[in-house]
Design a protein that fits this description.
Blueprint lengths: L1 H40 L9 H44 L1
Length: about 100
């Protein structure tokens, strides 16, 4: 029980440190994107300032499509696995 408590405490500390690291990384990416957008918006060509906003709008759509594809793969593989188990059971019963 003592070992589990020690492990649980270490995981809590690790999770906290990881969360802070992800937060700092996210803030850095956000600030970097804002600075880049400011520089691109000041460019002579008007379309350069639209690159980042358009990318940010497109990426969630790609993420949604990817999520749907992964869910379909999951469903197909689960269905196949069930069918394979049923066939295996039928073969065992036939013996």
């Amino acid at each position: 029980m003592e070992a589990f408590h020690h492990f649980n405490h270490n995981m809590t500390v690790f999770t906290g440190v990881l969360g802070v690291g992800i937060l700092i990384f996210s803030i850095a990416i956000f600030i970097g994107a804002c600075i880049l957008e400011i520089r691109l918006a000041k460019e002579k060509e008007w379309w350069k300032g639209l690159i980042l906003p358009v990318l940010i709008l497109i990426i969630p759509s790609i993420g949604n499509v990817l999520a749907v594809v992964l869910l379909v793969i999951y469903a197909v593989m689960r269905y196949r696995g069930r069918k394979d188990r049923e066939m295996e059971q039928m073969k065992i019963k036939d013996l």
